[in-house]
Amino acid sequence: MIRLKNENQRDGIRKSCKMLSALYRELLPQVKPGVETIAIDHWVRDWIKKAGGKPAFLGQGSAKNPFPAAICVSINNEVIHGIPSKRKIREGDLVSLDCGIDLDGFISDQAVSLEAGKVSREVHDLNVATRDCLYKGIAAVKAGDRLLQVSRAVHGYALSGGYGVVREFCGHGVGLALHEDPQVPNYPHGPNPRMSRGLVIAIEPMINMGTGDIRILEDGWTVVTADDKVSAHWEHTIALIHDKAEILTEDPLESF
To answer: Rounded to the nearest 5 degrees, what angle is found at the Cα of 250, between the Cα atoms of 241 and 202?
Structure first.
């Protein structure tokens, strides 16, 4: 069931989103070659605690295999859900960061793909295209229209660039829980409800340089491309307030 958010709920979600965007603004300058990804997670945990929130990702999943970190750090062929470790970021890596904050029961969710040092032209073009896919999807959010218009916008733009679109994972409702209805696929598939005022969703294109096919590693979390080519991931939390989307999270990379 889709839970439309009232004004008070939207205000709570908006505050959580502003906190998350502030986190990214401080974090991104530290994500550079030579840094261990586990150090990123430690920094994020400390920052969220000091800010008065809780990590929304920590402990997600099953009781047998809960997610062990406050942030996902996925590098190059890792699509999503990369677990921070002693792995060091290298020059030319594409580092996808995905994080959420629980602020007094209101949840935010945002992802950004950061270029570490100088990346190849192909990787840069993929990253730009994936970010553009996100904004194409956001532009398709209109009151009274169908949800899969968002999916068509993302999918069509990715295909026009010759990229692969991940199908097994998708965007989602968010705000009062980390994952709510409706699902927001990055290709036109599944239920197609009308979008109504009060809708709060996370739109998150996961776009691959090669095939859209993926596999999951033995840790049960890390999703990688089937052909080991690079993947990019961008995400905003948005709300349908009047007739079109309000972006609640802020883009930490205005240009790149």
So the answer is: 55
